Amino acid sequence: MTLLYFAWVRQRLGTGEERIDLPAKVRTVAELVELLRQRGGTFADVFSGSDNLCVAVNQEHAKWDAAVAPGDEVAFFPPVTGG
Amino acid sequence: MTVCIQAADFDIAVEVATLKQRCGDAGAVVTFTGVVRADNGIEALTLEHYPGMTEREIAQHEAEAQSRWPGIETSVIHRVGKLAPGDNIVLVAVASSHRKTAFEAAEFLMDYLKTRAPFWKLEQRLGTTEWVATRDSDRQAVSRWRRED
């Protein structure tokens, strides 16, 4: 699975992209967030305050109960501010 | 319909000419240009985006606009990278046979662009930087276009 981070999420985590082997028990975005939160440090900070986080699965806006699978591209970012 | 994410500036006259040609029988062309404001001492604005998803998201909304207002032609250009006050940020252009349709479709596209397209603005003022927060008014603006079907 490819994880992408944008804007202040990227800045705070210190990386914009990483690849992970998705554990079989992780089947939703919410479970993936919990997995990342358990890393501790800045990951715990960023993924604990999920109110201000948005997610896209395979480049489509998604919700926390959306399914995730190995091979997916999952992106975390703040609410968008274009235009 | 076209979507272009680019660092370079755009020429509105060129874009309008191209759009009129593509539309064939345009009786109206509406363009909206977003510009970097200089308020509160902003020195620069850096735009970050999600390559791939941005283009898909905008193309989806252009397709949606064309299904709501058949016969229109649309063009969206959004700049990324570091911009200065007064610089152009975004162009939405709609050609149509009638004025009302062109105005409505342009507003529809801008409202969706502001709330759905994955761009983020980083403001720089007096040597410090800060990510721009979402405005409630933008979220409210898009809600009027929602339909149940």
Concise account of the structure shown:
The complex is a heterodimer of chains A (83) and B (149). Chain A has 83 residues and is of the alpha+beta class. Chain A has helices at residues 7-13, 29-37, 41-48, and strands at 2-5, 17-19, 54-57, 60-62, 73-77.
Structure description:
- The complex is a heterodimer of chains A (83) and B (149).
- With 83 residues, chain A is an alpha+beta fold.
- Chain A has one domain: Beta-grasp domain (Ubiquitin-like (UB roll)).
- Chain A contains 3 helices and 5 strands.
- Chain A has a 5-stranded mixed β-sheet with strand order 2-1-5-3-4.
- In chain A, strand 3 (54-57) and strand 4 (60-62) form a beta hairpin.
- The longest helix of chain A is centred in the middle third of the chain and has 9 residues, at 29-37.
- The N and C termini of chain A lie far apart (30 Å).
- The model of chain A has no long low-confidence stretch (mean pLDDT 95).
- By secondary structure, chain B is of the alpha+beta class.
- Chain B is built from 4 helices and 8 strands; from the N terminus they run βαββαβββαββα.
- Chain B has helices at 12-23, 53-68, 99-116, 136-143, and strands at residues 2-6, 28-35, 44-49, 73-79, 81-83, 88-96, 119-125, 128-131.
- In chain B, strands 1-4-6-2 form a 4-stranded mixed β-sheet, with helices on both faces. In chain B, strands 5-3-7-8 form a 4-stranded antiparallel β-sheet, with no helix packed on it.
- Chains A and B meet through loops of A and strand 3, helix 2, helix 3 and strand 7 of B.
